[in-house]
């Protein structure tokens, strides 16, 4: 009997705390923000945040309970809206809402509710077109796209790596890099011309090029890129080991060290996880 009472007591405590936290939430005082509320920010999976706020205007710092908020999306004039939405409890009083679109829409309406009451400034209207990830709809103005995405003005590490190459001769590099590394290493020579991606591979094991192909194709679907050529090292170790005083070859790599001069970029697992967000999630 005492064991049963103990379980009952805990059940009552948990239930009362949950009910108490629900009744204290103020829908209008809650905060909603993030890039997923902006039609111009085209991402594989868009996202925004919800911060639960109490009636006394104090932010929750622990979970008010799962499934507190409901998020629905629709496109005016469309009978069906092909969008997968997830609301994830971050256990700190805030929620991450992420959604992946499988079609593009003229406009999009996002409704966020707490017990049938609209939250913050809900409903949110995204004036389109609102493009999905696979839409080949590049923004012609690269500067505008960069500004819309709120990208940093610079990336210090990339700038340091690039500083070793104030001048680049694409024709010379195409010959010398292939001759120097092409037989023993796995390389890709990429050319972007008229916003189309071309690639020539060197070496035997070039399967990992799919990760670089994917991020480049994703970019060309979103923005018109300048014509450019560059080499990417597909291996697990940096290649350019010459000293700064010697003739260096610019090679982009997923790895680097203090003693090498490769231009280090985000690793393939990071880019793949971004591109495949909500794309390879198993429902259990």
How would you characterize this protein structure?
With 284 residues, the chain is an alpha+beta fold. It contains 6 helices and 13 strands. The protein has helices at residues 2-24, 142-148, 156-162, 170-181, 209-222, 268-275; strands spanning 31-33, 46-51, 69-74, 83-89, 94-101, 105-114, 117-118, 124-130, 187-193, 196-202, 228-233, 252-253, 263-264. α5 (209-222) packs across α6. The longest helix has 23 residues, at 2-24. It is elongated. The protein starts with a helix and ends in a 9-residue tail after the last helix. The model is unreliable at 1-23 (pLDDT under 50).
Strand and helix map with partners:
Blueprint: H1 2-24, E1 31-33, E2 46-51, E3 69-74, E4 83-89, E5 94-101, E6 105-114, E7 117-118, E8 124-130, H2 142-148, H3 156-162, H4 170-181, E9 187-193, E10 196-202, H5 209-222, E11 228-233, E12 252-253, E13 263-264, H6 268-275
Parallel strand pairs: 12-13
Antiparallel strand pairs: 1-2, 2-5, 3-6, 4-5, 6-7, 6-8, 9-10, 9-11
Helix pairs in contact: 5-6
């Amino acid at each position: 009997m005492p064991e049963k009472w103990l379980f009952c007591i805990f059940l009552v405590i948990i239930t009362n705390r949950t009910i108490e936290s629900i009744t204290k939430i103020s829908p209008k005082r809650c905060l909603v923000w993030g890039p997923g509320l902006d039609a111009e920010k085209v991402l594989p999976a868009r996202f925004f945040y919800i911060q639960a706020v109490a009636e006394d205007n104090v932010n929750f710092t622990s979970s008010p309970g799962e499934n507190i908020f409901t998020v629905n999306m629709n496109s005016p004039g469309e009978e069906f809206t092909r969008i997968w939405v997830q609301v994830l409890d971050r256990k700190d009083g805030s929620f991450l809402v992420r959604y992946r679109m499988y079609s593009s829409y003229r406009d999009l309406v996002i409704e966020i509710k707490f017990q049938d009451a609209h939250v913050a400034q809900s409903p949110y209207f995204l004036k389109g077109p609102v493009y999905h990830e696979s839409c080949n709809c590049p923004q012609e103005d690269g500067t505008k796209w960069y500004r819309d995405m709120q990208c940093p003005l610079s990336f210090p590490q990339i700038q340091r790596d690039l500083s070793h190459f104030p001048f680049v001769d694409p024709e010379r590099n195409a010959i010398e890099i292939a001759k120097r590394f092409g037989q023993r290493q796995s390389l890709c020579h990429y050319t972007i011309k008229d916003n189309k991606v071309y690639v020539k591979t060197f070496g035997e094991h070039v399967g990992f090029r799919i990760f670089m192909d994917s991020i480049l194709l994703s970019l060309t679907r979103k923005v018109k890129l300048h014509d450019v050529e560059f080499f990417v090292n597909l291996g697990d170790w940096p290649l350019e080991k010459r000293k700064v005083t010697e003739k260096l070859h610019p090679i982009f790599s997923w790895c680097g060290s203090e003693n090498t001069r490769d231009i280090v970029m985000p690793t393939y697992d990071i880019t793949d996880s971004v591109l495949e967000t909500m794309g390879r999630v198993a429902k259990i």
